[in-house]
């Protein structure tokens, strides 16, 4: 095995082989974050369910019952919970992943490993939480006697889209955070505001059609619509919005990877 | 001997200021970009650049243990970080042949909430072991760390000694071709330090190469075949350990007759100073004739009830050999002694005519909590050739005490 260490300029290389060799480490880091998350808690992993559940209750009461927004012929609670699944995944995984480099700064300055492992592990934790709350969605739907649509076979594609967008945005912010601590203040702001801007508490059908494309520049719009479309069988898909979402997500991911690899060389020096 | 590490012209610069504040604020960067008209900064002429390493070239052979010595800020840690691929050199190139493991700190990634068992797997993976490898060595690691009973206890409940033992145990079971070690041996009690040193020797004997940083010259001397002395980011000297260590000690340490702890530790045991005094005159003196006793005076206060313990003193010559270890409990015949409260003074007398002319270094321990902090090379003094029998006759040997020779005439048996 021959390793060369020298000053690298220009574009960084993607050491895919190295990343693949570190897959066990990724597994361990994910497992560490999952198990630490629920250590010394009484109800443990139930927290993954309680947060979206209570949000659902509040949104259903406020938007469904008080504001009487349209519910696309499914119980309003189910409409909200189906959207909360991808939203919770995005919000948790993004805040964790964006803070993962600075949060593990001590490791960064003491040992080498592919730095991508850290944000990827945060995404991994998000996936575990997602799986738990997905089971609860099925329970809630059963409670409301709502059967899942057959289109559910397409759900993995929307999960993938959600993951792509989340990872892409996270990589940007994780790398920016190392240099600019402003990011710390920006992250909660973005996830709080995003919750109301994205169609989580309401159906995107209430957005006037001439604003629809502009509205869909937020990739989470297509993700949430896609979730409702494939699980509940409501909401016809708005194709231009979906295309925009896919394009933006993959551009973000590509750019995020480039920027992350480009700046990771100096992580240990500036952290 | 085949070289497994070669470094050519390795340099590393940091930008001052951004180092000090550790991070930028976006606003400042934007303001600066506007001011400089978005021109890339000229790194060559930039006065705020600090070169932590300048044109460092070196090589390490197979099965060779090389020590890295130098004062704080000489660039040792920077070089280790570059070797470990944590940060990039600004210029230059390093070639490493073989699997590298670096131990800049033990227990990286340990999580206090996780159990010892869980942390072994996690830390092993971070150090680059596969799950199968860890499983295979698991029992060995646990035995080495001596934590069998606490395997399923969260490490936050471990004593600091147990924590360090576990952390080192995982690292000790790595099987790299090249091992890079920072001052990790400075932790733990002395029995455990010996165990670690033994482990490092066996790593060398297995044909692996080691680069080790230590401030402890006796560690360097006993472990390394060769040493590299870094000063202000440049290689000042390189060669056989004894020569480099001697040169480094001769220059590296200031003449300090009086040592005061830099950081006041909040402990019931507090040193005010430790100083060297010529025993027969009672005058602090840097150069002491060979036939004068030397007193090391410990001025300290016991603020509170403090468990029975002792102070240790080690004396080292300029070749890095520890000549002797003595403790404040020795004359009592016990291994420890009780403390009285209040300010007091311990005086340790090194007898006249014991030492050969040369430079000497004093290390002392500071009782703290459950263990002792080793304060390495806090004092130095010189024994001059004046009235020295060893110098007069150019005698061999590391010490030159005047021993008792007794002459007894041959017994003539006279039977009345």
Keywords:
heterodimer, A: 271 residues, mainly alpha, B: alpha/beta, 5-stranded antiparallel β-sheet, 10 helices
Show the helix and strand layout.
The complex is a heterodimer of chains A (271) and B (416).
Chain A: E1 2-6, H1 16-21, H2 23-37, H3 47-66, H4 76-98, H5 100-103, H6 105-108, H7 117-143, H8 155-179, H9 182-197, H10 212-215, H11 219-232, H12 239-263, H13 267-270
Helix pairs in contact in A: 2-7, 3-4, 4-7, 4-8, 4-9, 4-11, 8-11, 8-12, 11-12
Chain B: E1 3-15, H1 18-21, H2 26-35, E2 49-61, E3 65-69, H3 76-83, E4 91-97, E5 100-103, H4 116-126, H5 131-145, H6 160-172, E6 178-181, H7 190-205, E7 209-213, H8 217-223, E8 226-231, E9 234-240, H9 241-252, E10 258-259, E11 269-278, E12 283-284, E13 287-289, E14 294-302, E15 312-317, E16 322-327, E17 342-350, E18 358-368, E19 371-384, H10 389-393
Parallel strand pairs in B: 3-7, 3-8, 5-6, 6-7, 13-19
Antiparallel strand pairs in B: 1-2, 1-4, 8-9, 10-11, 11-12, 11-14, 14-17, 15-16, 15-18, 18-19
Can you describe this structure?
The complex is a heterodimer of chains A (271) and B (416). By secondary structure, chain A is mainly α. Helix content of chain A is 69%, strand content 2%. In chain A, helix 3 crosses helix 4, helix 4 crosses helix 11 and helix 8 packs antiparallel against helix 11. Chain A is globular, with a radius of gyration of 20 Å. Chain B has 416 residues and is of the alpha/beta class. Chain B is built from 10 helices and 19 strands. The longest helix of chain B is centred in the middle third of the chain and has 16 residues. Chain B is globular and about 95 Å long. Chains A and B meet through strand 1, helix 2, helix 6 and helix 13 of A and helix 2, helix 3, strand 4 and helix 4 of B.
